User: Fold these one by one.
Assistant:
Number 1:
Amino acid sequence: MNNHELVLVIDFGGQYNQLIARRVREAKVYCEVVPYDVTIETILQKKPKGIIFTGGPSIAYDDDAPSVDPQIFELGIPVLGICYGAQLTAHLLGGKLEAASNREYGKKTLNITASDHPIYKEVGQETTCWMSHTYHVTSLPDGYKVIAKTDHCPIAAYANDQKKIYGFQYHPEVVHTPKGSQMLHNFLYEVCQCKGDWVMRNFVDSAIKSLREQIGDRKVLLGLSGGVDSSVAAMLIHKAVGHQLTCIFVDNGLLRKNEGDMVEKVFTEQFDLNLVRVNAQDLFLTKLAGISDPEAKRKNIGETFVRVFEAEAEKLEGVELLAQGTIYPDVIESGSKHAAVIKSHHNVGGLPEDIKFTGLVEPLRDLFKDEVRAVGREVGLPDALVDRQPFPGPGLAIRIIGDITEDKLAILREADWVYRDEIKNAGLNKEIWQYFAVLTGIKTVGVMGDERTYNYTIGLRAVTSLDGMTADWARIPYPVLESISTRIVNEVKNVNRIVYDITSKPPATIEWE
Ligand code: XMP
């Protein structure tokens, strides 16, 4: 790891801190996020090419506000303060802050007053920036100059080129600052003189190295769901410690067509991973019998999962560590509805008291979803796993409205298979965030040949989204919808009607449940 250029991101508690780290990685520079009370000694040991101070909710004037040893500005290492980081820097060096009369929030026009400044290379004279602050710098320390302003913020960015200390009041890391990545790139390359030697391969190598250090000769257990995150975590740990890792894959019978076999095949045949597949389809179905309420289904599935997992884990001897595919959005969202559900499904926090692990292994904790996918590709996982769309832990159980039976599961699996096949044939599979069939609880009259039929209605759901929090219905072209509809009615028994869901989220949700 030490062979790479390194930038330190000093964390003052802002909500975008990992996003800053991610932007630095995108610029091919390795970075570490460290707490604000990091010592000067540690900083010097790490030999960073640059230091970035993040934003944060505090006011730099307050007694208990997070701060740094001002010696940090004397190390000759370039510093970029963002939002709170910029205010703190100015304050520590003798500048003044004031509360703005109104909190400045949202997209603003940034006028770059020093457009030939290296930090604004290829940015132009005017651009949009994202502001979110109450306090701002009103007077700069000696030797500092303004390099950008907005209508309400006369010191939107400042610089001391001699000391290589900079401050941005706005947030360059968010997408609402369209040239923000360029500005960070400029800080890294024009100011810190980075060369850009960080690629995913390095992440994989260093993750493997630190997994070996953490795990030593102990045994690790991981609940593999077949989803992207647990699959990538499994592969990384397997690469690090081989057969010290055991994965338990509970096949609950609620997966899509052929999915369970695909997961088993990839991990055992292709990668020789220590995998225990538990075929618990019948048990899950029996437990679910007669249950229609979606939350009751979830709870039921979660409980059965824990019981099956526990029984399998008890058969293994000497396992001390539990591994999870937790990714960064799970960390920030923990406590929210889905994070909680995902957690209990992946058996995080849902474990019974008597299974004792001495530690957790979470190699993907700092990564965003697309970075996890990139790691997956790097370690050789097939596209079918890496590009898998989000799939709910309770699986097809919440895509069957009403109670669940084996027959209904078979109908839904076939219809969903045809739907996905046609989307792939139309080349739309990468554009649509999630697309799946729903077995509605409705039966209606139809006619086939000369026969009157009374059969199920299949709902087609397809949404575009960035994060699943909000979503829009995908505008699938009519000819594609037509062939999906024709094929499902022709190929799937007991279905005589297809409807397409044209609601966004909100007010609807992505799943029907
Ligand atoms: P909704 O339906 O709430 O879904 O708009 C948003 C995203 O979350 C997924 N989802 C779940 N994932 N367990 C999961 O692991 C669940 O119980 C669950 N319910 C919804 C859904 O597929 C979508 O991606």
Number 2:
Amino acid sequence: MLEKQLEYLRSVTDFTPQIALVLGSGLGSLAEEINAVASVDFSDIPDFPKATAPTHRGRFVFGYVGSAKVAVMQGRIHLYEGYSPQQAVMPVRLLRKTGAEILFLTNASGGINRRLSIGDLMLIEDHISSFVPSPLIGENDNSVGPRFPDMSEVYGKRLKKIIIETALENGIPLKKGTYIQLAGPAFETRAEIKMCSILGADAVGMSTAIEAQTGRQCGFEVCGISCVTNLACGLLDKPITAQEVTETADKTAPLFKKLVIKSIERMANG
Ligand code: HPA
């Protein structure tokens, strides 16, 4: 299936990206800052899932950020859309097949740790994916990656250092923490957030960890930044809405974009 999908992509463009960038909620407009050479809608790729989440456009844009060659996923596939974990990570596997070596993940999350405030950017240092099924379950293609991949350093030291240095140099405040992926689509209960907190999670979301896990397995160097769009359930005495997630993501987008773009430029040159 992956070969057929790659063949279709290649019929549109032979562009070989260095960096694959996944744009989360509210960050889709970053794709407009790319000097694009080609774009491919998910819906045109054979046997490929379609993006149905709000603000997730569902296409790959290939092109340049400065001198960096990037493939941008404008919109991602979530488990809550009804897709299997294997379908949800198809874009990650396909991007690896195009030759990309770095997987840069972004998302929106709810802050669990009280050190986090609404609008904060958080470097993802590690993740907990144990509450969602693994996309690596099933027959394994050993030519893609090992059956039992190591996950001791999912988010690479080198890339983390670049992001931290870029944030410092540009005066962009950056927190750090552990991201936990839950399936959604319901926001969590107070008890669930208490559980996540006890387990050591700093921020919660409905994506990313399975993409990072797949990315490592197929040989990507992986990094991730999360935008804390709201405080998780129970931290404030009010309900969580998708609207506040989108509103904060939109408000934070300029700073988020700056950090991502400047980090990418450094990654490509280092
Ligand atoms: N929970 C889960 N996913 C999210 C949240 C949240 O509070 N905010 C943004 N994505």
